[in-house]
Specification:
This protein folds into three domains: 161 residues, Spore Coat Polysaccharide Biosynthesis Protein SpsA, Chain A (Alpha-Beta Complex); 86 residues, Tetratricopeptide repeat domain (Serine Threonine Protein Phosphatase 5, Tetratricopeptide repeat, Alpha Horseshoe), CATH 1.25.40; 109 residues, Serine Threonine Protein Phosphatase 5, Tetratricopeptide repeat. The chain is built from 14 helices and eleven strands. A hairpin with a 5-residue loop joins strand 6 and strand 7. GO terms for molecular function: transferase activity. InterPro entries: Glyco_trans_2-like, Nucleotide-diphossugar_trans, TPR-like_helical_dom_sf, TPR_rpt. Pfam families: Glycos_transf_2 (PF00535), TPR_8 (PF13181).
């Protein structure tokens, strides 16, 4: 069985650190915590779990801090988390099995990172991350902001998930770092351009964000998932600027980089639905329902667009053109994912009353 070092970098995490560490304390064999300048009770909480608590002077470089934490690890594999991450009980069970059965020839293990949830507890946004890496390979973190772990070799996808559960976030921190680097004339890599544009978008600086997304795409050196994501984020920018045609153009642009993704099909479908072009909307929503859901690559996944959302929108579309039977069928498909959604239940009651008046049997009922 492998031994695992957990590495975290922290600063003022008294609200989340105990929750994080308690979720994995009985799984890992060593806990390394690097503090970058806490002024609250973070260190006191850390000492409940480990004596391996180190100070690292903050130099506005996340990769430097993470690499320092990795340098302190001594076990076979290194697990990295953030203080506002947690491994839930079911995933902890799967993690223990993984620890007991992992082939030592594996260089890195990816885990699903669950970033968002809907009102019913369903995952709405997720991504895969290389989470557990072989220490002897000396994999390194790269990037002052939005850093990434550069790995290679034998990489496997696990069924373990890490859940992000943030309580607070310094929304200006990353933007300020990028702005400083940009102001002193630092040459941005394609990845820097992409993440700087993301920060600008998050701060509703749409026109400037568009400029940097275009600079990123024009390098033609971006990771394919970032290229595709940029098209969606450009659409977000144009939506914020109320430029519907450019929003549609940006969504269609994603097809230059890969086959259609469900989230873009839904976005295009919404454009046509909003414009009253119902048959066009139906085509794109139907396409979204037929696409295979991919969860093994490292790109972000918009789960609703691959599950219930296109069916709910098809219910709306078919109701608009008077095809109540198909509207009902798609509403039932959406209900499989969100059985207690008031709008879906309201649709069900409404459509059943119409079909009953028309003497139509409900789908699935005997004729």
């Amino acid at each position: 069985m492998i031994a695992i070092s957990l590495c975290l970098i922290v600063k003022n995490e008294e609200q989340t650190l105990d929750r994080c560490l308690s979720s994995v304390a009985d799984i890992v064999d060593e806990i390394i915590i690097v503090d970058t300048g806490s002024t609250d009770l973070t260190k006191t909480i850390a000492r409940k779990y480990t004596e391996k608590l180190y100070d690292f002077k903050w130099i506005h470089d996340f990769a430097a801090a993470r690499n320092y934490a990795f340098s302190q690890a001594t076990k076979d594999y290194i697990l990295w988390l953030d203080a506002d991450d947690v491994v839930k009980e079911d995933d902890a069970i799967r993690f223990r099995v993984l620890k007991q059965t992992l082939d030592p020839s594996v260089d890195s293990v990816t885990m699903e990172y669950r970033l968002g949830f809907d009102a019913y507890g369903n995952v709405s946004s997720s991504v895969r991350r290389n989470r557990l890496v072989k220490r002897s390979n000396q994999f390194r973190w790269i990037g002052a902001v939005h850093e990434y772990l550069e790995v290679g070799g034998n990489i496997i996808n696990s069924d373990v998930a890490v859940t992000h559960s943030s309580i607070h976030h310094d929304s200006d921190r990353n933007l300020n770092i990028y702005e400083h680097r940009f102001s002193i004339g630092e040459q941005f890599s394609p990845r820097d351009l992409y993440y700087f544009a993301n920060e600008l978008l998050d701060h509703h600086m749409y026109e400037r964000a568009i400029t940097f997304y275009e600079k990123f795409l024009n390098t033609q050196e971006g990771w394919i998932e970032d290229n595709i994501s940029s098209c969606g984020k450009l659409a977000d920018c144009y939506h914020g600027l109320n430029n519907k045609e450019k929003e549609l153009e940006s969504a269609l642009r994603s097809f230059q980089y890969d086959s259609p993704r469900a989230e873009f099909c839904c976005r295009i479908g919404y454009h046509f639905l909003h414009n009253g072009q119902i048959n066009n909307a139906i085509f794109w929503y139907e396409t979204a329902t037929k696409l295979e859901r991919i969860t093994t690559n490292l790109g972000f996944h918009n789960v609703p667009c691959s599950t219930w959302l296109p069916h709910l929108q098809l219910c709306v579309c078919y109701d608009r053109i008077g095809n109540y039977k198909l509207a009902y069928e798609h509403n039932e498909e959406a209900r499989k994912y969100r059985s207690d959604d008031p709008s879906i239940l309201q649709n069900k009651t409404y459509l059943e009353s119409i079909l009953d008046k028309e003497g139509e049997p409900l789908p699935g009922e005997p004729l």
